[in-house]
Amino acid sequence: MNKKEVLELKRRLKKDQATFSRLVGCYVDCNHEKVCKFGGKFLTLEEDEYYKYLEISNKVLSGTLGNNLLNLQFPLEEEEVGGRQQILMALRDSELNDETLLDTYYDLVIDTYDEAGNYLILLYLDSYDVMTRTKDNINVDESEEVYKYMLCAICPVTLSKPGLGYLEKEQRIGARIRDWVVGAPETGFLFPAFNDRSTDIHSTLFYTKNTKEPHSEFMTNGLGCGVERTATEQKMAFHSIVRNVLGAEDESTDDKLLDIQQNLSEMADDYAETHDDDDDPFILDNEAMNKVLSDCHVSEEKISRIEKSVNEAFGDKPPIAANVIDSKALAANEIRVEKLALESQVGDLTLELNEKNAQLEEKDSVIQEKNNQIEERTSQLLEKQEEIDNYTAQIKTYDVVLHVKPEKASQIHAQVINGEKCLVIPMRENENATINGVNTNL
């Protein structure tokens, strides 16, 4: 069955559209004993019960095809007298009214369903008047066939959580009575399948809530079909094989596994572009596996080991490529790659900024050095100016100030002439003097 066919049936499981004619069930305890059995017309159920049972039936057709919902085929021997497909056919044809046949089927479920706790077996009977549909999916008011089918739901029954509550008779708060509560179905199936919008008695649609650990034993022993791995199981098995071969303790294994999934995702996208939705999905056979592993630079020796392990694990049913891809991990990896790219850009910008800062610091150093030189020169000039100012001040305190060459200073001497103190400066013929800026010829 495909997604459209599942949705076509599921849309009918609403209050205004549901047409279940009968509902039967059997409550089984943890000792695999039948505690009680019941049955009756579905439409006569009380409103609260009606909605709860309808909700359970909805769950059996919920989830993802290939993961929660698996298409199973009956082998030919199961379609012979005494086969498990024949028991289902007899149940459907009896319209769930044969108590002996129902007891036989309940016993079959109890013997083949591996469950430690209490559980409830439910069987729904329905008939769907399938309308002719045009190519553009428009219904024509003309019936093609009446699709008569059963839904089976196996629901866990557990004790409600302990807690306090109001005890009305005693008018006090106390420990409330714990009830046995029916939960959402863990396992179920639709029979016959609704393939190509028609009855297919050779197939059944199997439902599992737990995609990591489905009740595979019930597929084999309860329905008589071969075990079909869920997408989650395929992914877990493939990843485990790759990790073991590449080295589970190797830090690079996770990155390599992400690379493999990324390449697989791109190959699956390329396949989808050239194929219709109704075509077979992209299978991870040896050829595809060799290509994707080679593109990820996995050695020939390890490729051979991975192929051998995958073939042993999956047999003649190689995994669907889309099922071994962890979309959440790829999405997280895309974020990681973007983050690394941003961190790299930040690193480059930081390096560039540091270089600019270094250049600015170098320029600042040159400017500072120039400033220091200017300050030093200014200081020298100020010192000179101070000397000049001091000298000028000193000049103003003397009546006579002489400026002579150093070698002339030793020739100057004091002498009293005509009773007056005189400074005698010997002058040679080639020497002259300036007095207060006026040249004097002697």
Distance between the termini: 138 Å
Write down the overall mean pLDDT: 88
- Describe the main β-sheet briefly: 8 strands, antiparallel
Query: Regarding quaternary structure, how should these chains be classified?
Result: single chain
Explain this structure:
With 442 residues, the protein is of the alpha+beta class. The protein has 2 domains: 1-228, no CATH class; 231-325, no CATH class. It contains 11 helices and 16 strands. It has helices at residues 3-10, 47-60, 84-93, 99-112, 216-222, 231-246, 253-273, 286-295, 300-314, 327-395, 406-409, and strands spanning 22-28, 34-41, 69-73, 118-133, 139-159, 164-167, 172-175, 180-182, 187-191, 193-195, 198-200, 203-208, 413-417, 420-424, 433-435, 438-440. The strands form 5 sheets. Strands 1, 2, 3, 4, 5, 8, 9 and 12 form an 8-stranded antiparallel beta sheet that branches. A two-stranded antiparallel ribbon has the order 6-7. Strands 10-11 form a two-stranded antiparallel ribbon. A hairpin with a 2-residue loop joins β13 and β14 (420-424). α6 runs antiparallel to α9 and α8 (286-295) packs antiparallel against α9. The longest helix is centred in the C-terminal third of the chain and has 69 residues, at 327-395. Pfam families: DUF4317. This is DUF4317 domain-containing protein. Residues 353-394 form a coiled coil. Keywords: Coiled coil.
